[in-house]
Amino acid sequence: MLRIAPSFVIIADMIKLNPYARFGFTIGSGKINESYADDDDILLPDKSLSSGNNDFINLYEMEYSGGFAFGFSGSIGVLYGFSDKLSFFGEVNFSNLSYSPEKGKLVKAIEFGENILDEMPIRQKEIVFVDKLSNNYQNPQPDDEPSKELKSSFPLGSYGVNFGVRIGF
Hints:
The protein contains one helix and 13 strands. By secondary structure, it is mostly beta strands. The longest helix is centred in the last third of the chain and has 4 residues, at 122-125. The model has no long low-confidence stretch (mean pLDDT 88).
């Protein structure tokens, strides 16, 4: 996800030790990839998706995209000045971000070792996320159109510690 986080920074103007706070909002855009695999046997450690072992009975990969992520970010930290041009900083930061994709697309569908993606109708391969949805059981969604599902959000918040050197020119 590409994120842009315009922020306000409040910093104390002291001689050596300068505490500061940064806060603002975050906007982003990107994709989420989701994989699902199952097997009749218990999944053994050597049968993980990252190991490259494709002995699963069923393997599906979905890609969610479109829409924007919104949230807030901030940090509190301190700058320790070694000189006018060189200082060390350390900070604790957080980001509270929520992403609601607009569409989803099945990019891989393997069942019993066979790729079945081309055989599937569009309704099973593509999703359009909507704010409101009503099901009409007498007139179901056509197979040649993407399925419609209620929009949901993925939480993408984080927190951490940053530290480094600040060089001024």
